[in-house]
Amino acid sequence: MEAFAAWLVVWAKTRAVGWLARHWPKLVAAVLTVGGAAVFVAVTAATLVSGTDQDAVAANACTELGYLVDDAAYQPPPVDQKPAIPTGGPVAGFGRDDVDKIVNARAIVAAGTEAGVGRRGLIVAIAAALQESGLENVRHGDRDSLGLFQQRPSQGWGTPEQVLDPRFAALAFFGGATSPHFHLPAGKSSPAGLLDVPGWADLPVTVAAQSVQRSAFPDAYAKHEARAVLIVDALIGGSPAAAIAPPPDVGAPLRSDHSGAVTAADYRASGVDIDAFCSSSFELASDSRPGAGPGGQIIPAGAWTAPLQSRVTSAFGNRFHPVYREWRLHAGTDFHAAVGTAIASPTVGVVEGVSWSSGGGLTVTITHADGVETQHLHLSEALVKPGAEVQGGQVIALSGGSGVGTRPHYHFEVHVDGEPVDAEPFMLQRGVNLRAWS
Question: Residue 233 in 3-state DSSP?
Answer without folding.
Answer: helix
